[in-house]
Amino acid sequence: MLRPVTLRPLRAAQQPAFRAARRTISSSRGSSKLTQEFDLNRLNAQRRDYDRNRTAFLTAGAVAGIISFIYTAWKLKKAIEANNAKEGGGGVKFDSPPNIPTEQFKTEAGELRKIIVHDEDGNEVVPTGNSTVPLFPRTINVSLPLDTKRQSTLEASITDSAGTQYTLVGLGMRSVTFIGINVYLVGLYVATQDIARLQHYLVKSVNPVATTLIPSEKDALRRRLLDPVEGEALWDALLRDAGLRSVLRIAPVRDTDFHHLRDGFVRAVQARSALDKAAYGDEAFGAAMKAFKALFNRGQVPKKKEMLLCRGEGGALAVTYDAGGKQQREVLGTIEDPRLSHLLWLNYLAGSKVASEPARKNIVEGVMEFVERPVGTVATQVV
Question: Do 191 and 281 fall within a single domain?
């Protein structure tokens, strides 16, 4: 009977203690949760500050790097120009030797005319505006009957003696990189006897019944030739149908090498051939490209030396190099596939991107001199 009575007060005495313990535990848990939430907010704020500072630092570094790169490139360009001015090399704006004009055209009666002077030997030459190669010959003689059926190879047709006369149409500087490092001067020559074909084709493309173009028609033709799309279509048809014999004369204004020149030519041809794989994707064109690359497996090309890329009436290509002076042209080789020379010529004449924009514009102005004269009269004036 005593046991139940004794246990009841004891249980009653223990209940407040348990309640107090529960309150203490609940209070401890709540305080811990608040502390954790406070710590997470602080850590998140610190992380945001770190990310913001890191982004600002990286942005500042990138901007400083770009500014430093541009400044270094500008200083390098100035140093190259100063060095070329000191040594007489490379830049288009440098002074040419005495008594040689730096301009390539003069204005007569509102029309541009190519400036022609005489060198020490009395030969007609055209100023280039460059101090390393100040003059280009107005005419060159190349023995290059590329379409003579009696000869099976071009090597037999190119000799050191005087041959077919070619007349300069226009010239310009080939520059590379965004700071404009000058590499070589390139001039387009057309066989003097074929200038009438060039005149006829271009004049008829503007006015089918005309034999010469008036100023407004000349302006229309100039716009077409300078237009990336219309110009390429016009030169493409002319190279394919007119049967012009022509030469690209290349004269480096700084020391270079055959591989560097080859890489520029090959990249240009590959870029254009990739646009029409159906026309240029066969094995024959691939073999022609391989043979063309092999022509340039040589060493250095000193400045002022002459390289000729010669295109025959049917489009066959011959490459010559003058390593020893005048009339010492060595035949490097020939490519019979006309598609290769076709694309190579277009690289200088037309399209949205050409190897030399100054050369393209200069050639167009040279063409304007031809088309303002009656068809067939230019050749007699040159001769």
Answer: yes
